[in-house]
Design brief:
Blueprint (H helix, E strand, L loop, with lengths): L7 E4 L1 H7 L7 H14 L3 E6 L12 H8 L5 E4 L3 H9 L4 E7 L2 H8 L3 H17 L3 E7 L3 E2 L3 E2 L2 H14 L3 E6 L6 H14 L4 E6 L6 H10 L4 E4 L19 H10 L8 H11 L10 H8 L1
Parallel strand pairs: 1-2, 1-10, 2-3, 3-4, 4-5, 5-8, 8-9, 9-10
Antiparallel strand pairs: 6-7
Helix pairs in contact: 2-3, 2-11, 7-8, 8-9
The structure holds 3-hydroxy-3-methylglutaryl-coenzyme A (HMG) and magnesium ion.
Length: 297
Amino acid sequence: MKLPDYVTIIEVGPRDGLQNETQFVPTEKKLAFIRQLWTAGFKEMEVTSFVSPKWVPQMMDSKEVMKQAGNKKGTIVLAPNKKGIDDALSSGAKSIAVFLGVSTSFNKKNINKSTSEAMERLVPEINSLKAKGIFVRACISTAFYCPYEGKIDPQSTLDLCRQFAEAGADELSVADTIGEASPSEAFELFSLLKQQLPSTLLTAHFHDTKKMALANIYASLLAGIDRFDSSTGGLGGCPFAPGASGNVATEDVVYMLHRMGIQTGVNPDLLIEAISMIKPYVSRPFLSGYYINSKIK
Ligand code: HMG
Ligand code: MG
C-alpha cells in the first residue's frame, strides 16, 4: 500500500485532553490553548463537549468556549444526546461529534444508556442534523477493547459503524479507548472498515496506555487510513474508562509523519508552545519524545 503524502490530524487536546483533568482549567486558558493550536496549523479540532457538568465538570464552560472560539471552520464539539446536540446547535456548532461505545457496560458508565437504547435515540438526531446541513462525526468507543468486557468482537464494531454510516454520519472516529489494541488488530479492523464502508470518512483514535499508539498509527496508514485524532502533550482519557491513559501525543505523531515524508500542515515548534501554555494547568506529566527532545535542544 502506497502511504499518503498528507495526513489530517484532528487535535482533540482541548476536549479529550482536558476532560480527564480534575482541577478546573480556567476558560481563558483553554481559549488561549485553542488559539495557539489553530496557529500551529490544525484544520480540525475538538474544542469542547456539551455533556452534563455533573458528569464531567471540566466541560461546564462549553457554551463560553464556543462563544469565544467557535467560529473557526473545522471546530468540532461533542454531544451525547438531544440536549447536548440542541445546546451545541444554539452555540453555533457546524460540526457535531456524537459518541457511543460498542459495549453496553462502557456505555452504561459513560452515558447511562445501553448501546441499543442510545443508538435508537441518536439515529433521529443524526437525521435531523443532516437535514440542517451539519457535519456529523460519530466517535465509536471501545472498538477494540472495553475496560469492563475485555476484547470486543470486530464484527460488533463493524455492525455499530455500519449503523452510524447508514444513519448518515459523515465520519467515523474509531477509538481504542483504553489503549490496548495491537498493530495487527488495528490493521485488521481498519482494513475491514475501508472495504466495507468505502464512502465514509474514517479516522483512527488511539490512546497510548501500552505505548503501541504510534505503531497502531503506522499499521492504520498501511490499511489506508489518513486521518488521526491525537492530543497535544498526550493528555486525555475518558473519566469512565478506568485504566486508560492519554491520547497519543500530537507532537509525536507529527514528528513521526514528517520523518516519513508525510505532510500534516502542523508546525511542531508552535505546537510545543501550546504545551507550554497549558502545562501549568494540568496534572499529567508531558512525556512525549518530541517534547522532551525539543526541550533538550
Ligand atoms: P443522565 O444523568 O442519565 O441524564 O446522564 P438525564 O437524561 O437523566 O438528565 C439528568 C439531568 O442532566 C437533567 O438535568 C438534564 O437536563 C441534564 P436536571 O433536570 O436534573 O437539572 N442533561 C444534560 N446537561 C448538560 N448536557 C447534556 C445533558 N443531558 C442531560 N448533554 C448524560 C446522561 C449523557 C448527560 C451523562 O451521562 C453525560 O454527560 N455523559 C458524558 C460522559 C462524557 O463526557 N464522557 C467523555 C466523552 S466520550 C470519550 O471521551 C471517548 C472518546 O474520546 C473516544 C474514545 O477514546 O473512546 C470520544
Ligand atoms: Mg478518547
